[in-house]
Amino acid sequence: MELIAGVSLHFIGAFSASVCYTPQKGTRRWSWQTYWLLQAGVCWLLLPVVVAFISIPHLRQVLQEAPASAMRSAFLLGAAYGIGGTAFGMAIRYVGFSLTYAISVGISCVLGTLLPPLYEGRLSAILGGPGGNVIIAGMLAGAAGIALCGAAGRLKEKDYAGLRPEEKSSYSFSLGIGLCILSGILSALYGFSLAQGQPIADVAAKYGAGHLQGNVIYIFSNTGAFLTTGLYCLYLHARHKTLHEYGGTADRKWLGKNYLLAALTGVLWYTQFFFYGLGHNRMGNYKFTSWAIHMIMLVLISALVGIVMKEWAGTKKRTTSLLILALVVLIAAVLIITYGNYLGGT
């Protein structure tokens, strides 16, 4: 039951991540960097501190006793994750959403899952233990499902090509693929950041934080991501002279709504981290699989949300069939990894 609860909590977190970008569609007369810096301030700077203060008993003592090396590693790896997120957004511009998602998330899923146990020297023991081969099979199935989603998305773009002409002047396959690979590698480091910050959570657990212990790590991992993201947004502000947008544009009626939508995005994005931590601490002996489950569910739920929002309406039969196949493979991947975790806990 604890394992089922962990997977269910990962589902809630992945759902929040899948819908967190939808409020952006409602903003008006703001540049990307204005919106992005505000939501990042909520997600990566404000909420990690506030939630840790509320949920971690004796937070001051925890931070005093926690290893400085763990804090430093979590922060620096989080900063690298922030760069990966920026590269993801840039890659979409050059090669489109579907290809970016398939390559970046696929790399992040595999690398972010295997890197922590590999670094700790436990990977061989895990793979040779009960359920190890099952987990690897589930991860491969997840990577295949993500790739199929990307292929289906590419077919959808072709289906809509005649109906929805797109601007091709910014298309650059070589640059886009390079950014996809960079994004996948650096985004995978977020899971590694949480693993490196575990000694901080262990101290929090000693003071009674229980399953909420992971919230203390976000103080370092998320603020690292905010640093690099914030610097890039400020660079864009300086380049495009858009800092004035925080005080409104010529039409100020959208200002309050824009602030609320940016804050909502930040809350939804942080919610995925909150439930990720709750689920991670219930995954038994193979907690490292949390990242794979989260990434696979993120792609799965994003596709389902797209179906509900009729984003796939009007596509050809082959596109719909490939999407259905991708969803089946992704669901199977989650079940296989969960079963591997069950075997590892017996």
Structure description:
This protein has helices at residues 2-19, 32-55, 59-65, 68-95, 97-119, 123-128, 132-159, 173-196, 198-206, 218-240, 255-280, 290-308, 317-344. The longest helix is centred in the first third of the chain and has 28 residues, at 68-95. Helix content is 76%, strand content 0%. The protein is an all-alpha fold. The radius of gyration is 20 Å and the shape is globular. Mean pLDDT is 87; it is low at 165-169. It has one domain (2-344).
How do you describe this structure in short?
By secondary structure, this protein is mainly α. Helices cover 76% and strands 0% of the residues. Helix 1 runs antiparallel to helix 11, helix 1 crosses helix 12 and helix 7 runs parallel beside helix 12.
Please name the defining characteristics of this protein.
single chain; mainly alpha; 346 residues
Q: Report how far apart the termini are.
A: 13 Å
Which segments are poorly predicted (pLDDT under 50) over 5 or more consecutive residues? Answer: 165-169
How many domains? Answer: 1
Counting DSSP E segments of at least 2 residues, the number of strands comes to: 0
Largest beta-sheet characterization: none
- What overall form do the CA principal axes indicate? globular
